[in-house]
Amino acid sequence: MDIRLDPALATGYASFSQIARVVTESWVEEHLYCPACDCETLSRTPPNTRVVDFRCQTCGEAFQLKSQSRPFRAKVTDAAYAPMIDRIKTSSAPSLVFLHYSLDRWVVENLFFVPRFFVYPSIIERRQALRSTARRAGWVGCNILLSCLPPDARIPAVSDEEPLPQSEVRASWHRFEFLGDRNLESRGWAADVLACVRDLRREDFTASDIYAFEDRLGSLHPLNRNVRPKIRQQLQILRDHGIVEFLGKGRYRILLLPSRG
Q: Which CATH number fits domain 7-164: 3.90.1150.10, 3.40.30.10, 3.30.300.20, 3.40.210.30?
């Protein structure tokens, strides 16, 4: 993978945001591969396609690109709120591509994927509507809350300007693909409980350790009044898919570490 960007592709554009968009989108189309299958290219969607920027012509996986010249932190500004939520609720949300580039050297410094099966409503934050004096008065945008995701959801493809092996990237993608077979609520619960497990930052833990996150999980899923049984259910799902091991008497051990990056 060639990590160099070509700013000459944006000759004639005056706005920096337009330059960055043209350069990074061109790079993705020319150099990035599909992490969900063996296809070596991603195709750009037609202009003005909402939410989706690229699609794999082999497996049909859809992607939305977010690119910026500074590292991605806890919260990333996204586009309109309603179309994204509608996509999530109809199980047609795209997977996300986060591309961090060097502005002075025009190279890809870091790139990671967030698969669509980790994209659920609680990681999408509604922003306030634009004021009546704004050009797009009333428009409502959203933020992507990366801090709410378990580290497993961030699948690195380029780390510190070093491309990772495609086989490693695809293996990380398929490791949690079982979430895509579950309904939206179940996906969110499994990912949120996994995030709590990772936040413990130790190999062995107990069910009581995860119960300490009861308030946090309850706020993320306010319609569920039985948080502890739901926690136990999600730990069983993670156990059944080889993420954790049940040791007996409420004790667990982590078997699978997050992807390196």
A: 3.40.210.30
